[in-house]
Write a structure and sequence with these properties.
Elements lengths: L1 E5 L3 H13 L3 E5 L10 H4 L9 E4 L9 E4 L1 H12 L7 H31 L7 H28 L10 H10 L2 H4 L4 H4 L1 H11 L2 H8 L11 H12 L3 H15 L2
Helix pairs in contact: 1-3, 1-6, 1-10, 4-5, 4-6, 5-9, 6-9
The protein binds glutathione (GSH).
The site of glutathione has 13 residues, from helix 4.
Amino acid sequence: MIDVYYWPTPNGWKVTIMLEECGLEYRIIPVDIGGGDQFKPEFLRISPNNRMPAIVDHDPVGGGGPLPVFESGAILEYLADKTGKFLPKAPRERFRVLQWVHWQMANLGPMMGNANHFKNYAKNITDDPKQLEYGTRRFVGEVDRLSGVMDAQLSVNAWLAGADYSIADMVTWPWAMLAGRLIDESVWTKFPNLKRWVDEVGQRPAVERGRQVGSDLGKRKLTEDEERARRELLFNQTSDKVQAAREEAARAMKG
Ligand SMILES: N[C@@H](CCC(=O)N[C@@H](CS)C(=O)NCC(=O)O)C(=O)O
């Protein structure tokens, strides 16, 4: 059994999509990131960066006690090695996939996260139009550039890392399919190869199932005060607020 520390966001969907694709059994443990679950010491022991997703495999590769893994890219690589699926073993083919996994983790995910922040959340935090405008231009511009990178790659390859569907597609799709919302819908005519791939990945039954996991979580209507408290928690993080819990978690997990 694999415990999945999860909230229904693009980074969370990557893991549920992979678990569904592999037909692995799993149990969802909700991490309400607006309510502060990510700062609880028991979660920091699994995920020291106070971000979900994370997993604990109770029957880990290589034996031994329960194995925690954080960072969605590492989680998908781990699950691929566990099952022998969606990541080739031969070095040339393996790194063809892994370079795109790392590309997503270092580029598309963070840039789309920041574009989303400036487009949708920052207006509740600052009313200085200059700050909003610069941040939006910078990160939406990066999302446009990265969409072009994917489009070129997909103009000559069926899937992101080549001829086979892989964990590179699974880590990238949950963000890429939001490009229309973050730029505007013209993105799909500008990047037709990206559109073709977004549609094809989205039609896979395991992807549909993974995307639906926990869709009811966080649906409760919040009061204005609750909204404000959640924003403060998510967008005003400093290291000193949580340092003691972090250090305690690091001591407990010392490898
Ligand atoms: N690089 C990380 C990013 C994870 C991440 O940013 N998770 C967000 C939700 S999508 C989170 O847990 N946020 C909690 C917070 O900001 O405190 C991964 O892919 O696993």
